Amino acid sequence: MSLSRMFRHLLTTPWQVRRAFGVTALDAIQDAVRACEARHPGEIRFAVEGALPLPALWAGLTPRARAVKVFSDLGVWDTEHNNGVLIYVLFADRGVEIVADRGVGDARVPPSEWQACCRLMEAQFREGRFAEGAIAGIEAVAGVLARYPPARPDVGNELPDAPVML
Fold it and tell me: What range(s) does the TPM domain occupy (predicted)?
C-alpha cells in the first residue's frame, strides 16, 4: 500500500463525493441507465464509493476486489439471464472497475472492451467532469452490451436503475 493512496482515502470526505455526484448528477445517471437499458437486454448498476476504510487499505484491498464484493452485495449477479454489469467508481482513486456477470462477461466480451469504458470515465473524472464521465461510461457500456448481447432475450428491468452511493 502506498502512503499517497492511504492519504487520499483518509482525506476524502463524504462532502467531496456528494459535491461530485450531487442530486442532479445522480438523476442524470439514473436517466442514462434507464435509456441505455432500453437498447439492449443487459442490466447496468452504477455504484460510487468515496473511500476505503484504513483496514481495507492496509490489507491491500484492490479496487477490483472491492468491485467484485459490491457486485455480490448489490445482487447484480441475480438476474434471470446472468446479464448484470456493475460500474464501480472508487472516488478517492478516481478509478473505475466494471464487473460483468457470466452472460456478458469475459467469455463473450473481450476484457479490453470493458477497460476502454473504464479509461473513458477515468479521463473525465481526472478533469472533474464526474456526471459527464459517468454518463459517457454508461453509454459506452451500453454500446458493448449492444454488440455482445446476452444469449437470451430481455425479460424487463430486473435491477434498480438508481445509482448507489456506498
Answer: 27-142
- Determine the average pLDDT of the residues in 96-107: 87
* Contacts of residue 54, Cβ cutoff 8 Å, sequence gap at least 6: 6, 9, 10
Pair 33, 46: CB distance under 8 Å: yes
Q: Report CA torsion sign: 130, 31, 18, 119.
A: negative
> 56 lies in which domain range?
3-165
What average pLDDT does this structure show over 70-87? 93
Q: Which of 138, 134, 158 is nearest to 146 (CA)?
A: 138
Total domains in the fold of the chain: 1
8 Å CB contact between 63 and 93: yes
Specify the pLDDT at position 40.
84
Q: Please answer whether residues 89 and 48 qualify as being in contact, where contact means their C-beta atoms are separated by less than 8 angstroms.
A: yes
Q: Which residues, 6+ apart, have CB-to-CB distance to 152 below 8 Å?
A: 41, 80, 81, 83, 103
- Return the CATH number at 90: 3.10.310.50
CA distances from 109 to 100, 127, 144 (A): 9, 28, 8
Burial of 64 (0-12, 13-18, 19+ CB in 10 A): middle
**128-149 residue pLDDT tens:** 999 999 999 999 999 999 887 6
pTM for this prediction: 0.92
